[in-house]
């Protein structure tokens, strides 16, 4: 019962959805029709981006209301969310995950490391940015990107 | 006529029921939620995607989603939801319904084994544990109700409950209702037995079996799972709260009224289930047999009570 009181007292914590320019949809994502399943791949991230992804799907930003959802298998996914520079150990794993996603498939490079290796550029264990391994359709800059930026990028995929 | 209406209602309404339950959970968790239509949007998109069969899988993997969806559609046609009369009345009694549901589960478990991945096999073995404990409980708890009527035909059981509404609050009926509610939760993979929205492979039961399915196959499985949920919830309401169901040769108006009533009842039950999930955590896997054995015991007591207290 104390949980029930807590629920009643807290009410809705999701922030109102920010305004969005209509028609601003990624052409490759147009046929998904308001439903985008995402598979997150950590290719060697420092887990800063992971914390931001967790808050994007938390109650405050609630990306699920725009039709985006994290799934447990690349077979269920429409898009891969790749974080971190691609390390040598994760290169083959990332390539295989990409091949496991059914067409049409998209790749989002999330964070500066995924875009251009960021702070890890030139490190001995790093193969290169995500675009060296798999084709990238969308990039989200930031180290780590703010949840608002991630939500805006996801809404370009879902179109909602 | 009633059967056609039932199948259409279950086929179209089930994803909406799942969407409604997710919406209830989202609101209670302080989120905005994706809307009731989101499962249909997901299904529409999955159907358009490329079907993938992993290397080394055979016809078992490809046939499993079709068998799962097919069996649920047959069950939706014979179970009394809108009308107690069904064109398959003679062949489809309690045993046929339970066997059809089990056939779908076994087909999906075999499909999961066919992928020969670690998680597929693990999910299949867990599903079989749950199934082995759930099926006898379903049979026994409906037995407890069929003793009174003297037949295992579900339509006849529901018709007698409509004629004698006070019988619903007998000890046998209440025990059977509790047992059937627990196995419905287990069979449809809801909290506290299984978490339908989990991402942790090690805690999965149903989700682990479908990890390798993609595109239209996955759409079929998700649609069938939603239909199983609404059929079992509908069966629960028909057996223990049969008010409004159309009996005998009911006219079109009675059927429509019964459809509206059953939608309202199933939606209410689904909302209650979703709200209950917010207050509960998933049980540890080794505690699940204890829960299901408890529900089996209640079903056994219900059968005993219906014999000795009748």
Task: Describe the protein in words.
- The complex is a heterodimer of chains A (160) and B (310).
- Chain A has 160 residues and is α/β, with parallel strands linked by helices.
- Chain A has a single domain (32-158), classed as Rossmann fold, CATH 3.40.50.
- Chain A is 30% helix and 18% strand.
- Chain A is built from five helices and seven strands; from the N terminus they run αβαβββαβαββα.
- In chain A, the strands form two sheets. Chain A has a five-stranded parallel sheet. In chain A, strands 4-6 form a two-stranded antiparallel sheet.
- In chain A, strand 1, helix 2 (48-56) and strand 2 form a beta-alpha-beta unit.
- The longest helix of chain A is centred in the middle third of the chain and has 13 residues, at 88-100.
- The N and C termini of chain A lie far apart (36 Å).
- Chain B is mostly helical and 310 residues long.
- Chain B has one domain.
- Helices cover 70% and strands 0% of the residues of chain B.
- Chain B has helices at 2-28, 38-48, 59-78, 94-114, 118-149, 154-163, 171-187, 206-209, 215-240, 252-278, 288-308.
- Chain B is globular.
- The two termini of chain B are 36 Å apart.
- The model of chain B has no long low-confidence stretch (mean pLDDT 90).
- Chain A binds chain B through residues 3-4, 7, 10-14, 17, 31-35, 37, 59, 62, 64-67, 69-73, 75-76, 78, 100, 102-104, and chain B through 26-35, 38, 41-42, 44-45, 48-52, 198-201, 204, 207, 211-215, 218, 278-279.
